[in-house]
Amino acid sequence: MASQKLKSARAVSPRKIAKTRKPSIPITAISRAFFDRVFKAQSIEFYRLLGITLFLVAFGLVMVLSASSIDSLVANNNSFEVAGRQLVFAAVGLVALSFVSLMSVEYIKSKAKLFFIGAMVLQLAVFFIGIDVNGNRNWIDVFGLFTIQPSEFLKVAVILHVSLYLSTQQQYLDDPKVWQRAIFISAAAIALVLAGRDLGTGLIMLITFVGLMALAGMPGKLLNMVLLGILILTPLALMSSTSRMGRITAWLNPNGVDPLNYNWQSEHGMWALAAGRVFGAGLGESKMKWSWIPEVENDFIFAIIGEELGLVGALVVILLFVFLAFSMLRIMQRTSDPFKRNVVQGVMLWIVFQALVNIAVVLRLLPVLGVPLPLISAGGSSLISALTAVGVVLAIERENHSQPRTARPQIQRGSKSSLRRKA
């Protein structure tokens, strides 16, 4: 019997055996192309920027957990409530970064105007369906689940739209009308944010867009006029709010009478930094996070970094933002395309200046402005918008790496009238 079974097994041809096997599931062309594009080797600058960004986000999650644990336990009976929500926001932001970084720059350009219109509509909606937070009307409540801050996405939208507009006007950059339109686009967005009484976000947008247009080639005379206008309008914006004036007065006179405790945050923030000394009290060992500093996981998270990780930890965070700026500068230098250069400049100015302003507030070099530390502070809109912007820069560097580097073209500049005369 055994020999008969063996013979019958030998009699079966290899073809029949192959037919009886279950066919393996083939990898589709779409999935193969996707994985090839995701894992394809990129430039050093691509991985440097991505690595710094991921480290800042991961570090931010740890610090948000540490800074918010006590207040979260008191308010929600759960130490991980705020940190868990921030983890979800980080996941959404990283998905946005991944998808945007895989988009072609031409596709991003084609959607820049639509994105700008959508962001402006959302910012306008704040005045009808928005909610007030600490005196600022700059948030939209989504069915009680979470809030959206449209002004954070408006930053990205204006950078893309202004960059697109200026890239189409390269031959007319000496014509004041070109810059007037770019100024109008930026000013309209800033005015909507300031109308919601959010001075901090408005200030960051102002610095970003003026810096962007200066680097893009705005004529010196027009730039001086813009700066003069800012100097005239800034005091008016400050005097339009009693709480704003109170914070500035308290900042200018820290030892004076402060019945409304405008100096409370900054004073306790300095105490936190002083307590950290050189090496810090240790992760999770902060004393000031025990309800001594309002918004400690948001605007004043740098104070907790200094208290728990000391001067060394604070300097590491500052150096990471310096390396982030250096990486974006290198990416900007690797392209001659005006749109790409302007976008990278805008994103770099936004993230770096916002980080500097946040740190300056904690160090009492500036009055309290309510500006989060990019990629680190708690807040979904701030984190997702920043990661989306970094995704755009990565998409630009991906194309830089895939295309041969060409010499920067000489841009013919002149007014429309002079160009017509030459024609």
From TrEMBL:
The way this protein sits in the membrane is described as: Multi-pass membrane protein
Give the enzyme's EC designation.
2.4.99.28
Q: What is its main location?
A: membrane
Q: Where is the protein found, in the record's own terms?
A: Cell membrane
Q: Output the GO biological process annotations, alphabetical, semicolon-separated.
A: cell division; cell wall organization; peptidoglycan biosynthetic process; regulation of cell shape
Q: Which reaction does it catalyse?
A: [GlcNAc-(1->4)-Mur2Ac(oyl-L-Ala-gamma-D-Glu-L-Lys-D-Ala-D-Ala)](n)-di-trans,octa-cis-undecaprenyl diphosphate + beta-D-GlcNAc-(1->4)-Mur2Ac(oyl-L-Ala-gamma-D-Glu-L-Lys-D-Ala-D-Ala)-di-trans,octa-cis-undecaprenyl diphosphate = [GlcNAc-(1->4)-Mur2Ac(oyl-L-Ala-gamma-D-Glu-L-Lys-D-Ala-D-Ala)](n+1)-di-trans,octa-cis-undecaprenyl diphosphate + di-trans,octa-cis-undecaprenyl diphosphate + H(+)
PROSITE patterns tied to this protein: FTSW_RODA_SPOVE (PS00428)
Q: Which GO terms describe its molecular function?
A: lipid-linked peptidoglycan transporter activity; peptidoglycan glycosyltransferase activity
Annotated metabolic or biological route of this protein? Cell wall biogenesis; peptidoglycan biosynthesis
Top EC group: transferase
Alphabetical GO CC annotations of the entry are:
cell division site; plasma membrane
Q: Show the stretches that span the lipid bilayer.
A: 46-67, 87-107, 114-131, 143-166, 178-195, 201-218, 225-243, 300-326, 347-369, 375-396
Keywords from UniProt, A to Z, are: Cell cycle, Cell division, Cell membrane, Cell shape, Cell wall biogenesis/degradation, Glycosyltransferase, Membrane, Peptidoglycan synthesis, Transferase, Transmembrane, Transmembrane helix
Q: Where is this region: Disordered?
A: 401-423
Q: Supply the InterPro entries for this chain.
A: Cell_cycle_FtsW-rel_CS (IPR018365), FtsW (IPR013437), FtsW/RodA (IPR001182)
- One of its Pfam families is FTSW_RODA_SPOVE
Descriptive protein name: peptidoglycan glycosyltransferase
In which organism is this protein found?
Answer: freshwater metagenome
